């Protein structure tokens, strides 16, 4: 891997600043309390909290780019007396990982456990919340929640107000005692929930009001005490796709008072009242809905109230494999087979959803009712190691900016994988055409189960929706035209199809590409090509057992290139982790995340997606 001896500092608006050395602040070693460590922390510092119980009453986080690291959510407990506030996040770039927040001492909570206020930005990963008036309150700020469990709040597990934004993925929202799983209200407030479970709340699983909006994708909404999703009042909007809405006490999806819901590729079954309804209690029709390519069945009062389904929908027993155990894979004779958009199953995960109410590494599956324990795959003869490695710097159409180090990324990844016994097909610049990429992907899709595959791409991405309106974005081959992406670029949905259809048991997808639409900076940002469309991009890729994906940044961020490394930051730290002997997906991801966030001053946050219930998942 190439390096330049001179250090190129971070440059903002032509001003050069010296690198800041992050400091590790230990609790209770150096600091007796979490509050003291947080107050002393400076931008870039890490507050490391050992196992134990800690009172965090009224802790205010005012410095940007602070990471708070626990010893695990069953080990590091941050508790709040129910009559006090917990964390108040007023700064940006705050990261909290591997701990539990909980409310104690009194029966009625007055405040939330964590509040993200105004322009505050908070990322929570592998955390748990228990109790609080609201578990997490986003009031005008931004919140990201991944691989976490939020439960037992007095009101809502997440409430988003005052124009706040929330992104939730691979998480469980459960058992709030008085209100909804996630409550979004006020115009400009929004949430996106992906690959998650929202269940057993006293009221609705999802509640939208006063102009709040939500996008729900590949999520199960089940067994809530009122509606699955309640969308009320003018300008409130719900977009739900590829999800399951089942077993809720009243209506599966209810719109009224001028609200609107769009329902696509979703199964709405066994709810206690109507499957879908757009009426007030008085019977006046006041809400609107678009329902397409979905399945409705066995809703107690009927599948629809005052709504005529289009012919693209199915009203029949979906023939789920084991719905009582929340396994929604389809039996071979299911009427939903092939009925969904693009021939995909209606509202279903590619491999079914066997652990609906169980987070990775949270419980012992063998002791958990309603969870099917997968048997290990039978041993197979050792297969081939195959890699498709793509790097594009010299885009041929003028409206796609050129890059500096994407070809170096491809060269370095190919060199490393070759040293590990991979047969590598490398496509760089002029050879990385759309037809050639598709040809090579087809070969990978047809590989036998015993083979293992790595797909690596370094280049541009785009946030444009595909022709069917799904904002899953594109990877841009060498001949991509920003004005004609559907005809000239590779949809991420096509990459998803390869992941879904290949029989190989181990596959890694590694994307050093930007989908944010942001402009280049002096760090040489890997630009996302800005086009109209939604921002549900790499979050729309779904990876089952044995399949790993690592993405260089969040959907709303650039992916930077590094002059000091002559690589993208993501690729540099990926190879560095490999060279240091890291192979398990969790370990590789942590090394990449720590390196990239430190090098970019928290401007870029790598992401991951893989099934951590299957034990060790190797990247190479």
Structure description:
It is a single chain. The protein has 620 residues and is mainly β. The chain has 3 domains: 1-154, Single-stranded right-handed beta-helix, Pectin lyase-like (Pectate Lyase C-like), CATH 2.160.20; 189-353, no CATH class; 385-610, Rossmann fold (3-Layer(aba) Sandwich). It contains 7 helices and 48 strands. The protein has a 21-stranded parallel sheet that branches. Strands 6-9-11-13-16-19-22-25-28-31-34 form an 11-stranded parallel sheet. Strands 37, 38, 39, 40, 41, 42, 44, 45 and 48 form a 9-stranded mixed sheet that branches. Strand 3, helix 1 (34-40) and strand 4 form a beta-alpha-beta unit. The longest helix has 15 residues, at 585-599.
